Every structure is written in C-alpha cells, then in structure tokens.
Amino acid sequence: MAPPPKPDGAASPAKLAIGVVGIFGAFLYYGQLMGDIVKYQADDGSKLEREWFLQVLEAAANVLVGLAGLILTQGGPSPAIPYKSFLLTGSTQVLAKAMTQKAQIYGVPFFLATLVKNAKMVPVMVGAIVLSGTRYPARKWAQVALIIGGVVLVTVGKARKSDGGGHADVIGMACLGLSLVCDGITGGQQTAFKKEYKKTQGKGLAPYDLMLFTNAAMLGVALVMALALDQFFGGVAFLLDHPDLLKAVAKFSFCSAIGQSAIFFTMANFDPLLVTTVTTTRKIFSVLLDIVSRGYVLNGTQWSGVAAASLGVLGELQEKFGKKQHAHSK
Fold it and tell me: Which residues have a Cβ under 8 Å from the Cβ of 151 and sit 6 or more positions away?
C-alpha cells in the first residue's frame, strides 16, 4: 500500500519541483496539443472531429500510467474497490471531457472552454441547494458571479460572425454546459463514495486506485460510444493516413496521463492546499498561454472578462488558504 501522505515539511524540495514541473509542463503542453488536434486540417480539407475516439486514446494512456503507478507505489489495488461507483463517476467524467472537446470542435477556443470549466462549482452548488438545502455565503456567490460574468464578457465581446458561425458558438457553449453538469455529478458522487469507503474500510482509497479505476471506466464507456457512433475505425484510419497528427495525439494522450500522475504524486507528498494552489495557477497560465500562442486578439471587454474570471478562480484559492489558517489558529 502507498505510504500515508506527508506533511509539507517532511517532503523534499526535489519532490515539490517534480510535482510542479510535471503538472505545469504536462497540462500546458496538453492544452496546446488539444488546440492543434482540433484545428488540424488535411490537404483535402478533412478533420479528425472524433471526440469519443480521442477519449479512448487518452483514457487508455491514463490506464497504462495508472496501472504502472499502482503496481510500483502501492503493490496492488486497495481492498474492496467500489467498481460500480467508479463506473458511474467514470461515465460522467468521460462525457464531460468529450463535450469539452466537442465544444472546441464547434469553435469554442481552448482558453474560453477552460474559463467556463472553472464554473463547475455552479451545478454542485445548485444540486446541494435543491437536494439538501445547503446555504452558501455571499463570498461563494461572488466568486461564481465573477467566473460566469467573465465568461459572458469574453463571449459577447467577440466580433459578430456573418457566416453562420454564431450557431456553432451556441452549440459549443451548450456542450460546455452539459460538461459542467457532468462535472457536478462526478464531483458529488466521488466525494460520497470516497467518504463511504473510508468509513467502511477505515482508510481512504489510494491515489492510483482513483486514477486507474476511474480511467478504466472512462475507457470502457468511450470505446462503446466511439464504436456506436462509428468514430473508432474512422479515427484509426485518419491517424494512420496522417502520421504528423498521430504523433500529436500520442503526445496529447500521454501528457494527460503524466499530468494526472503528477497531481497524484503531489497529493501523496504534500498538503492538499498546495495541490490546489498548483492546479489553480496552472489553469490561469493555460488560459494566458492559449491566448498568446494562438494569436487571439482580445478587445478591452474580453480582457476584462478574462481578468474577472481569473479573480474568481483565485478567490476560491484564497478562501481555502483562509480556512486552513483559521483551523491552525484554533
């Protein structure tokens, strides 16, 4: 089994560097590759445009890396793995990821999709209010308003298209809306079954249990969907006909796996707040990198939206720091 998490002071700076470089490097490059794959167009004008096929490859890479991590760091899976729970959360998680990629196929830029995905707290909050009557402080609503308002400013600040592109934008944003709902379901279900597992087993699921079995479920669902929608064999043929795209997809898949593994590595050695700090700042860097590297020219309204959404994301991070400091002061 994996050793218990170490407090910040017990973990070496080298391990911190490995975790931070792994998370930033893998996911920043992942975002760039995703944009390249979505925008790729063959000489005859054809595109890959097979989101479920891409999910098969990405999940397969994560399964391979997760299996290696589980064997090397844990010696095997934890007892009494809740397979049904993993199947449910894996299904909603892979649907969320597929819809995010579908949104980009419909023309939503990666940086805007990333900003929208930071509003995943919205369906979680709505669900908690409806199902359990949970009340949230004004600060939480302000963070949500900043993120949503920022996305709206970026969207409405775009120049109007005269070629019917507005219809594609609507479909793309609808795909992101469905992705957010799935994220909310995934987060709620994961929290519930991890808590139940710890209650019944006396200890929590190990990090690579979560990585391996979640991605195994995602792989199964993605494969079924890719075959049902006739994306799998067409996707294989397209990649074989375009070796340059094949290399990009391979790097994209393993960047996802390396990034996830780096997150779990950091979780196993440091306080969860540090992991949140790294992943939150990485999202903001991903947004800025995509804007700069793709040559997007944003007007004042759109930059205001990016700034507002980023403040909302950073507000969540500051809130968690405040809670930790308050807990230590008791």
Answer: 112, 115, 116, 119, 305, 309
pTM of the model: 0.79
Residue with tokens 């500051």: 318
Task: For residue 76, give every residue at least 6 positions away whose Cβ sits within 8 Å of its Cβ, in sequence order, or none.
Answer: 70
- Cα separation, 289 vs 295, in Å, equals 10
The residue behind tokens 């070796």 is 243
pLDDT tens digits, one per residue of 66-99? 999 899 888 889 899 999 999 999 999 999 999 9
In angstroms, rounded to a whole number, what is the distance separating the alpha carbons of residues 34 and 27? 10
Q: What is the DSSP string of 279-322?
A: HHHHHHHHHHHHHHHTT----HHHHHHHHHHHHHHHHHHHHHHH
Q: Please write the tens of the pLDDT for every residue from 167-199.
A: 877 898 899 889 988 887 887 788 788 888 888
What DSSP designation does 10 have? G
Name the residue among 180, 209, 177 with its Cα closest to residue 83. Answer: 209
Which bin fits 180, alpha (ψ -120 to 50), beta or left (φ > 0)? Answer: alpha
Name the DSSP class of 9: G
Angle between helices 83-105 and 165-201 in degrees, nearest 10:
160
d(CA 192, CA 1): 22
Q: How many CB atoms lie within 10 A of CB 95?
A: 23
